[in-house]
Amino acid sequence: MGRKPSRGDMPPLSSPPVAQREARRARAELSFDNQALLVPLFGQFDANLVQVENRLGVYIAARGGAVQIEGPEDSVARARDVLLAMYDRLAAGRDLDAGEVEALIGMSGQPMLEGIGPARMDAPPVMIRTRRKTIVPRSPGQVPYMMQLSRNDIIFALGPAGTGKTYLAVAQAVSQLITGSVQRLILSRPAVEAGEKIGFLPGDMKEKVDPYLRPLYDALYDCMPPEQVERRLASGEIEIAPIAFMRGRTLADAFVILDEAQNTTREQMKMFLTRFGQNSRMVVCGDPRQIDIPGGRSMSGLADAVARLEGVEGIAVSRFTSTDVVRHPIVGRIVEAYEGEEA
User: For residue 172, with 0-12 CB atoms within 10 Å meaning exposed, 13-18 middle and 19 or more buried, which class applies?
Assistant: First the structure.
């Protein structure tokens, strides 16, 4: 396992970059016992180490199973925690890719980093198990949200795209369906957005609304084997429908998710929330900055509901920001640019 040739010209540990000399310097040393895990830990051509270096502004030197980290004191401490968490993930038999490394770097300033998946603990404190994967927090905002998903009756999840609002809700719903905590999984969202009328789309009603509901299908297939999804859809255990189909129903023994809720009217939101039945859980996801209905925020059922219901017993609100985006890092920077302009 050789170091990248381009990194051979980097200064030795005793000669840090000039730009970093003003900060208080520190050095940390780590030793990893399992030699078989070093290749996936460091990454191909040490890509994982380079990623940590670039994001945290440190220098990392690896010699066999020994790793030295040097840089600003706070950054060295974060890099150390990240490398330990990376190693623990691999030791627990879990995969490690650039996205996971980026998530660990983003979480490294948070006190719960050590609980993300260390081998020295039986299990992380916050996790969702599905048939296809075990899901743990990948951003600071996801930690309280995942706790709320397992505790509260109704949860409002507000924030930009890419923060995991809908995905984690679907994962929790699948987990509870598998364990028998609920009997049905109901996924819904407004079918008409940005002034479009589904009546002009070809096909029957299912074919008309399926394009609007595709993100929910994608999350389902990521959490369950395709054949199980199809079987449960056919049996009615999983139902995906536009919000208009909820009227007049009582949704008992169900995990109910409303996506793109910012595009509901106040009347639709009231109708949806009052469908709540015994032994049920509701999650309402939306981005208050992406309202497509006429009238904007003043007519959004999501904004109205949060203003009325926040603080009511049994109801929780999770707010995500651009720092919680778990897609490519550039997505977070795009969100920040747009939010700054709107502000």
Answer: buried
What is the per-residue pLDDT across 201-260, written as a single tens digit (0 to 9) for each? Answer: 566 656 666 777 788 888 899 888 989 999 999 999 999 888 888 888 889 999 999 999
DSSP 254-288: EEEEE-SGGGSBHHHHHHHHTTB-TT-EEEEEE-T
pLDDT at 1 over 50: no
Dist CA 263 CA 196 (whole Å): 12
User: Angle, nearest 10°, between helix axes 47-56 and 73-91?
Assistant: 150
What's the token pair of residue 296? 């904007």
Residue 199: the pLDDT is 54
Residue labelled with tokens 């945290």: 56
Per-residue pLDDT of 89-114, as tens digits, reads 888 887 788 877 887 887 776 554 44
Q: How far apart are CA 283 and CA 170, in angstroms?
A: 9
Say if CB 206 and CB 214 are below 8 A apart.
Answer: no
- Distances in Å between the alpha carbon of 216 and those of 55, 106, 149, 320? 32, 26, 17, 19
* Distance from chain centroid for Cα 201: 32
- Residue 72 CA, chain-centre distance (Å), reads 29
Consecutive H or E run containing 308: helix 301-309
**Main-chain dihedrals φ then ψ at residue 241, nearest 5 degrees:** -155, 155
Q: Which residue has the higher pLDDT, 316 or 125?
A: 316
Q: How far is CA 198 from CA 70, 120, 192, 202, 257, in A?
A: 58, 53, 7, 9, 21
How far apart are the C-alpha atoms of 296 and 300, rounded to whole Å? 6
CA count, 13 A, side-chain hemisphere, 324: 20
pLDDT reading at 331 higher than 80: no
**Which residues does 261 contact at the CB level (< 8 Å), separation at least 6?**
156, 189, 190, 269, 284, 285, 286, 301, 302
289 C-beta neighbours (distance < 10 Å), count: 15
Distance, in Å, from the CA atom of 177 to the CA atom of 133, rounded to the nearest integer, reads 15
Q: Which of 32, 120, 31, 28 is nearest to 69 (CA)?
A: 28
| Cα distance between residue 125 and residue 136, in whole Å | 9
